């Protein structure tokens, strides 16, 4: 005991604020017996038996505190102990005979008493009575099992938060297993379980954000009145309500029709140094499930074009008959043959082969036309139809979107050449058909940018009640649209320019769109944002021409800021429609759960409540899911804050309670930007910061 006390005295430091190193030149490591072993052994026995006088215990506590401080790096070299903190507990447990958790508790109790005292360590002369320490150890021993389990979970949680190499992770797991006196396999299993739960929580947060965004987009239903003069916008909205369709589906079809009849020489100068111009071209499509009213949404517009085509056909046939009569008379009189009549003007076509497009465009170099397919899949199916799929119709069709020239060489015939393509496209498709088209076209990455060239409107089924209201007293909407198209057709071709304020708005939006292009992880959206930069200018040009036609005046030379604001809002709407399509169709093709969750929740909201068997009766798609899997998806939706679960087992249902009045059905998310309202003036403002966000 005397030798032990001498050795203890040698390692008891004298600490002074002015000198952070203990007095004396003898380092602790020079002692033959490891001082840490001596401290731990004597302190453990003293705590367990109550032996030792108070002075000795005070020295032990002070030395122990200094040792811990040195291990934690509080004392600079060379007075730093090299024994890892983990070994301290193990040695303490071995010397004391306590279980590791009980030994750890005793260590922490004594260390806490000492650490409560300020520097210098030489003044650490007060500790609690040994009886209090023993009582704390006993309390720890009684609750050791539960606290040990929690300690193990805490340690593994800390590992999950670290970015360790596999070898380091294995070493930490084995060390934890030794300290906790557990089998390494059991620790590994618990670690993997915690890792899976952590990933599940992260997926839950991601799914919640994705569902919020999809629901916000799906429930955002702007009116055509936000983008067009209310005198026309209200008519469109009223008709849309009568036939149970979206007014935006009618409006986007109208814009494609306006683009097809606009003077070919019309263009908007976006950037003079880059020679960047927007031309009157728009490819649009209405996407909806069968029975949602896709055809009525488009036919009210295309009917006007077909009527114009019929009138042109009658004119051409009359002129052709007169020409043949004049030609016969000239032949009889042996006079000069008459001039041929003006060629037939094509307002629209359903033939989208490269040769048909080149033939029409070559015959009307300065005018556009509309390619219309009630089912737009026919547009893609007709490509290379006469070349066993080995032609280049698709590439020629896509290049025409940018107004490039088109030349078709024909065997045994004169080539066809169009100086610039000016055709627009519109059509409808079902959601499932669009997924098939994308799959055949190279997948959702859309490497060719074929689908990014389209401006889509996703339309959900709407009520179409019997309504006695009659709008024929004001004239049919189709007839009114025909008058507008003829007014646009008569406008002079010109180069338009953005006003100073409009250029500032457009430039800020361009930069934000370009930032999205550079940072978006999906190739399809990189293409969408890239093309949207110019498509917004095309929309501004079309709105400018349409506004002038409604007002019955020639278009102004300058395009206003208000028009550009509407065009940007409209392009944002189309981008969000692509987000909705990719969030449902593309996610489903990639096997992502978010698509299934979104569809189940939409059905639950529609029906009020839904059970697994209800889904399985709807279509064969849901029969692929077992009832247990569907119940798991219901529970996941409940965790996401969508609905609540009622019943158990086979009686389990997902109930979509209506939200309290004034509350949204989605969780908190950033507010959407207000759309322009032409009846009260434009309220849509967008700063550079908002654009980047």
SSE layout:
Blueprint lengths: L1 H10 L23 H15 L4 H18 L13 H12 L3 H16 L14 H13 L1 H17 L5 H15 L3 H36 L10 H14 L3 H15 L5 E5 L4 E3 L4 E6 L5 H39 L15 E2 L4 H10 L6 E4 L3 H5 L11 H8 L5 E3 L7 E3 L5 E6 L1 H10 L13 E6 L17 H13 L5 E4 L1 H20 L3 H29 L6 E2 L1 H29 L3 H15 L1 E2 L1 H7 L1 H4 L3 H13 L4 E3 L6 E3 L32 H5 L1
Parallel strand pairs: 1-10, 3-8, 3-9, 4-5, 5-8, 10-11
Antiparallel strand pairs: 1-2, 6-7, 12-14, 13-14
Helix pairs in contact: 1-3, 2-3, 2-4, 3-5, 4-5, 5-6, 7-8, 7-9, 8-9, 9-20, 9-21, 11-12, 11-17, 12-17, 17-19, 18-19, 18-20, 19-20, 20-21, 21-24
Provide the gyration radius in Å: 39 Å
Strand content: 5-15%
Low-confidence stretches: 1-35, 69-84, 113-130, 662-674, 679-693
CATH topology of the largest domain: Rossmann fold
CATH architecture of the largest domain: 3-Layer(aba) Sandwich
Name the helicity range: 55-70%
Largest sheet: 5 strands, parallel
């Amino acid at each position: 005991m005397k030798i032990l006390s001498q050795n203890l005295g040698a390692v008891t430091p004298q600490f002074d604020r002015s000198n952070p190193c203990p007095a004396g030149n003898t380092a602790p490591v020079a002692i033959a017996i490891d001082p840490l072993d001596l401290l731990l052994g004597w302190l453990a026995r003293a705590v367990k038996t109550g032996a030792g006088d108070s002075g000795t215990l005070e020295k032990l506590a002070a030395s122990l505190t200094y040792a811990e401080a040195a291990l934690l790096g509080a004392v600079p070299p060379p007075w730093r102990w090299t024994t890892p903190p983990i070994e301290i507990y193990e040695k303490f447990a071995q010397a004391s005979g306590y279980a590791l958790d009980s030994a750890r508790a005793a260590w922490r109790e004594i260390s806490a008493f000492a650490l409560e005292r300020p520097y210098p360590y030489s003044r650490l002369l007060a500790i609690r009575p040994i009886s209090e320490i023993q009582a704390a150890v006993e309390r720890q021993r009684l609750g050791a099992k539960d606290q040990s389990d929690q300690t193990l979970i805490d340690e593994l949680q800390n590992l999950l938060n670290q970015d360790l190499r596999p070898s380091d992770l294995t070493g930490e797991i084995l060390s934890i297993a030794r300290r906790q006196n557990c089998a390494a396999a059991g620790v590994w299993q618990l670690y993997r379980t915690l890792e899976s739960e952590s990933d599940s929580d992260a997926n839950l947060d991601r799914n919640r954000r994705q569902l919020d965004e999809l629901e916000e987009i799906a429930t955002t239903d702007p009116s055509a009145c936000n983008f067009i003069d209310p005198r026309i916008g209200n008519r469109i909205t009223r008709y849309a309500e009568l036939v149970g369709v979206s007014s935006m589906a009618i409006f986007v079809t109208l814009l494609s029709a306006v683009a097809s009849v606009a003077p070919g020489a019309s263009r908007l100068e976006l950037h003079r140094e880059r020679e960047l111009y927007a031309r009157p071209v728009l490819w649009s499509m209405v996407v909806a499930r069968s029975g949602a009213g896709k055809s009525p949404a488009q036919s009210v517009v295309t009917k006007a074009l077909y009527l114009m085509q019929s009138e042109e056909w009658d004119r051409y046939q009359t002129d052709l008959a007169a020409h043949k009569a004049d030609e016969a008379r000239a032949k009889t009189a042996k006079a000069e043959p008459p001039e041929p009549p003006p060629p037939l003007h094509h307002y629209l076509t359903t033939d989208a082969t490269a040769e048909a497009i080149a033939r029409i465009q070559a015959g009307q170099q300065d005018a556009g036309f509309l390619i219309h397919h009630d089912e737009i899949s026919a547009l893609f199916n007709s490509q290379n139809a006469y070349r066993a799929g080995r032609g280049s119709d698709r590439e020629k069709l896509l290049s025409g979107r940018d107004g490039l020239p088109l030349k078709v060489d024909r065997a045994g015939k004169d080539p066809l050449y169009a100086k610039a393509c000016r055709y627009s496209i519109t059509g409808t498709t079902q959601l499932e058909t669009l997924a098939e088209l994308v799959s055949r076209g190279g997948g959702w990455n859309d490497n060719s940018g074929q689908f990014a060239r389209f401006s889509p409107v996703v339309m959900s089924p709407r009520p179409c009640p019997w309504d006695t209201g009659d709008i024929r007293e004001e004239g049919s909407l189709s007839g009114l649209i025909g008058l507008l198209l003829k007014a646009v057709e008569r406008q002079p071709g010109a180069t338009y320019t953005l006003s100073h304020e409009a250029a500032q708005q457009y430039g800020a939006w361009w930069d934000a769109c370009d930032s999205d292009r550079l940072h978006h992880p999906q190739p399809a959206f990189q293409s969408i944002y890239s093309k949207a930069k110019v498509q917004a200018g095309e929309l501004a040009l079309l709105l400018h021409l349409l506004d002038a036609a409604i007002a019955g005046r020639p278009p102004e030379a300058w395009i206003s800021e208000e028009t550009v604001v509407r065009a940007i809002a409209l392009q944002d709407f189309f981008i969000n429609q692509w987000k909705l399509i990719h969030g449902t169709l593309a996610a489903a093709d990639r096997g992502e759960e978010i698509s299934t969750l979104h569809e189940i929740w939409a059905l639950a909201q529609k029906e009020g409540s839904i059970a697994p068997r209800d889904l399985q009766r709807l279509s064969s798609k849901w029969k692929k899911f077992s009832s247990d899997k569907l119940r798991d998806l219901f529970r996941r939706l409940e965790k996401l804050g969508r609905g609540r679960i009622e019943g158990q087992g086979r009686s389990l249902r997902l109930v979509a309670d209506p939200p309290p009045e004034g509350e949204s059905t989605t969780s908190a998310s950033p507010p959407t930007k207000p759309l322009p309202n032409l009846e009260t003036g434009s309220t849509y403002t967008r700063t550079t910061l908002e654009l980047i966000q």
